[in-house]
Design goal:
single chain; 386 residues; alpha/beta; 7-stranded mixed β-sheet; 6-stranded parallel β-sheet; 14 helices; 15 strands; globular
């Protein structure tokens, strides 16, 4: 089968790899029809993680079931399913608590938790930027789609990661109807966080970034754009809130946050939120931060290379703020968000800027990594269906 394979920093090739196959009675095999390039793929693409050469990218996947293991009881051959990027067992201590993002069974390292498709340090599982994908514990992990699953793939594929992840940011930030919410980052996850806050009834939602094309997308869904290359987000928000600041905020950038000049600073967005959110406000952090960054010493300094980020903790403490962190437990949200899509209440596919064949993945990675104008979200179709 064909797959998008990581060969080294900024080097992706599409080539033949061994076919995915059923390996366990609870597995299902999915023919991938839609798969996304995620912003977190870029950390691996740039060589800023421990992702090994030879592995297949892709943790945002949707497709048609073509085979099921003998122990599979619910999922049927022929159904279209969207797959959480979290690979979970459903029966470990964390899964029983709904924390499928920290599954203890599927992560092979005993001192770690959480597994994912095609992701650094999250198990040996191949990604879905390929023609076929093996899905462990298919009955638990696969979310079945309705009759509109084929024609609305660009909406439903967002349930694999970025829509639930953006929603998770608003949950950790405790966004409620009428709130004043600020989102740092207008990439796909930031746009989903802003969209989720608006779906929840937030009174005003600001989105902070320095990419004009992405800020235009944020404005198109009803958010208020702040170009941080031209304005101080804290000043803008405080001026609009009688000096109080936002009720809550979402961090959707991660450890490679950088200013308009390209200078990296892992503390940039975190400190921006601490300064912009009011006293006793809440902050949800879903941007990726990692304990070991191979390029961190060169790009920032030795402290950041080991995951130590110098945030304004004294200010955060004195303001009585709360901060929630970590990857999203996709299964906690994906069924409800699916039904919002099915009912016409949510259309997260608005974020898609490009639909391409799998063969064009190397070129797509180059453009998306360069933040070229208009490259907001790339969707790949391994079956050429678009």
């Amino acid at each position: 089968m064909k797959a998008a394979v990581y060969e080294g920093p900024r080097n992706v090739t599409v080539k033949d790899v061994p076919d995915a196959k059923i390996e366990h009675p609870c597995d299902i095999l999915v023919r991938i029809t839609t798969t996304n390039i995620c912003g977190s793929d870029l950390h691996m693409y740039e060589g800023r993680t421990s992702f090994q050469a030879g592995r297949t990218f892709g943790h945002e996947n949707l497709g048609q079931v073509i085979e099921v293991g003998p122990a599979v009881r619910k999922v049927q051959v022929g159904e279209y399913v969207v797959l959480p990027f979290n690979i979970a067992c459903g029966f470990c201590k964390n899964c029983e608590r709904g924390l499928t993002n920290y599954c203890l069974t599927m992560q092979p390292e005993p001192d770690m938790a959480g597994a994912a498709f095609g992701f650094a340090d999250m198990g040996p599982y191949q990604g879905g930027q390929a023609e076929f994908l093996r899905v462990p514990y298919g009955d638990f992990n696969a979310l079945r789609l309705g009759e509109d699953g084929v024609e609305r793939q660009n909406d439903y594929v967002m349930l694999a990661d970025i829509f639930p992840t953006g929603y998770h940011a608003t949950e950790m930030a405790e966004v409620k109807p009428g709130d004043q919410t600020v989102v740092f980052g207008a990439g796909p996850v930031g746009l989903m966080a802003a969209y989720s806050a608006l779906l929840k009834g937030a009174g005003r939602v600001w989105v902070v970034d320095h990419q004009p094309d992405r800020l235009r997308v944020a404005e198109s869904i009803g958010a208020l754009p702040i170009n941080c290359a031209e304005q101080d987000p804290a000043e803008v928000v405080k001026e609009a809130t009688l000096g109080l600041g936002a009720d809550n905020g979402c961090e959707c950038v991660g450890y490679q946050a950088h200013d308009a000049g390209g200078h990296e600073d892992a503390s940039l967005t975190l400190n921006g939120l601490i300064g912009t959110v009011r006293f006793t406000g809440s902050i949800g952090v879903v941007g990726v931060f990692i304990p070991e960054d191979p390029g961190g010493a060169e790009a920032q300094n030795e402290m950041e290379a080991h995951g130590k980020v110098p945030i304004d903790y004294g200010l955060m403490w004195s303001k009585g703020q709360r901060m929630g962190t970590g990857q999203a437990p996709v299964k906690r949200y994906n069924r409800g968000l699916r039904d919002l899509i099915a009912g016409g209440r949510a259309e997260p596919g608005f974020v898609v800027s490009h639909e391409l064949d799998l063969d064009r993945a190397p070129n797509a990675y180059e453009h998306f990594d360069a933040r070229d104008d208009g490259w907001t979200k790339v969707v790949l179709h391994p079956d050429g269906s678009h």
